[in-house]
Known about the structure:
The chain is mainly α. 69% of the residues lie in helices and 0% in strands. It is extended, with a radius of gyration of 25 Å.
Amino acid sequence: MKEKAKYGFSDLLEIMKKLRSPDGCPWDREQDHTSLKQYLIEETYEVLEAIDLKDRDKLAEELGDVLLQVVFHAQIAEEQGEFDLEDVTDHICRKMIDRHPHVFGNGKADTSEEVVSNWEAIKKRENGYQSQTQVLRHVPSNLPALMRSCKVQKKAALVGFDWDRTEDALAKVEEELREVEEVYQDGPEDRIREELGDLLFAIVNLCRFLKQEPEMTLTAATEKFIRRFEYMEKNADRPLKDMTPEEMDSLWNQAKSAGQGEIRV
């Protein structure tokens, strides 16, 4: 059987133009940059799931869905006279060339660390930032909180504001935990919230020192919890709500021994 010819990028552009045309799709015509925000986020997380599952076919499909969102936004912008897809590709091409002077120019960077340092310096110069605080404030506030705090910490570390050793970061976690213990019973709610926030921030910092992404680390821990909880429900002789804490602890320990904590994400 003859293999079907594959669609290309130009076909995707034509499909989007058709969908947005007067005789196209009512739903697609109604969308704007704001209404599409949620879909870009959803599609991005589905790409991450495909990577975790090591499903290459699904990854190709989900990357296509992200690409569709890029084309969708570009088509809307072109209709409104803002920019078009060529502007999008021009921006990213120029950025990649300008920020890789060690590849496309006379710059020098022999390690990944040097590449990152050069990238940040070029970015700071491009945006006209006069202080590192401006760099920190440029980290998008709508990023997931764990991801944003880690990114802010990394950028602060670029100017030397950092612990010297992992042990220092660990000691900070212990210090913040003690402060939570001091206020959790009698402290005002805003103080409790503040100390819990400091503890979370310190834990993110420790993750950074141990070269672990906090967002992914917490995701893995949540998945582990669900697997262990599933084991408890399947092996309990009655509903969990009717069991004592000691009985549930026993089942939880069985789940751990049975390997239900194995990280698979």
